[in-house]
Amino acid sequence: MGLGDREWEEYRDIIFRQVDFEPTSSQRPILDCGKRFILVVGGEQGGKSMVASKYLLQRAFEVDDDALFWLVAADYDRTRPEFDYLVEDFTALFGNKRVEATKIVNPGRIVVGGAREKKRIVIETKSAKDPRTLFGRSPHGVLICEASQIDIETYSRINTRVGASRGWVMMSGTYEHSLGWYPGLAKAWEIGTDTAQSFKLPSPSNTFIYPGGINDPEILRMKQDNSDQFFMERIMGEARPPSGLVFHEFRADMHMADVKYVRGEPVHLAIDPGYSDASALLAIQVVDGVVQVFDEMYDRHLVTSEVIAAARQRPWWRDVAMGVADIAARQHQAMPAVAEIWLQEADLRLISNRVGINEGIERLRTFLRPNPFTGRPGVLIAPHCTGLLSEMGGCLNPITQQMSVYHWRTDQNGNVVGDTPLDAHNHSVKALIYYLVAEFGVVSAQKRDTIAVRHRNRERKAVMLHDR
Which domain does 96 fall in, by range? Predict the structure, then answer.
């Protein structure tokens, strides 16, 4: 709109007075933040839906031409509070004749301004249950409502959709638990980056509902009646992740990226066989020195032949150059060894070496840590590789739909005991470790020799890279 910072604040305050809104001291920093990516962790009745709707309201006037905004949630119904606030506010500003809004939100649409006017503001609701709705014209801004309840793929897809318009994304939600991509982003953005910032709106900060703040009788009652975990997560907006996570270095904003298969480049397979619990197969390419996990097969109750048949249908199969698996792939357990089946049915000789648990964990940790010179980690994971992401603590397990994270043994007080993690929730993690050790050696290893890999009756060489 061509206004200076002071003029814009005065203009915005006029808008807020017209819709009878006075921000609390905790809400004002959120509304003042002009970064592209904003995350708000709210306690129950902390005012997160209110402040999110007002954030969109103020930014709707920044766009000089027709403006498009989305309200996205795990399902349409969860967009209802923000939708209703926006209808009420735009009607207060422009009157009934210039605001058209659907009665329903599945899908819902708000149009401010007629077709003959120079500018229209359009707000549409979107559901993560139907990814097809997250396409079309790039929006100028997106509100993700109850953001902790959407999956990591939806978040990644929204990030991509605002790219063309250089739009903004604001997320608000209450912690359902203290693991996953949402608490991870909140922690990573807590001190702020060039483009992102996270905020907290604990329930006591909403002094309209709890005038006594942290000492309000209702807040004190909830603290007395609920567990410390529930009170800190759901009322105070504080993450309380369980102790003993093996890979506490994992960060969704750093290690998750929209990496894709590069046709013509060697594809490496990392395999952890399994049946009743899960089996994992990772498809990997090394691009510009970074290990990119661009695809995953994470399934239960599939025999090796079925895994091979499914893998051969993937578009990347033509470029498979090597495969790595656990030493157990050589073992015969009343049936042909897994490695033998891969050789017979896929013409792929699997590399399998014994890898110590702790040396494998340390090898992966070196790839999770950012390079001190480039700031980039050594491994990137595509958002749809949810088996690997879930084992790192980034999302729900795709099979059980539970938080199932690779973790150390702990006592009843949460203290780590022993020197090895529980051998569970680690199928894709182990597959990735096998690959990293085969390619780069253990942490103390030096440069390794080349090895020959047989694939489709051809001899290819997979060159071992220097230890990182």
Answer: 5-235
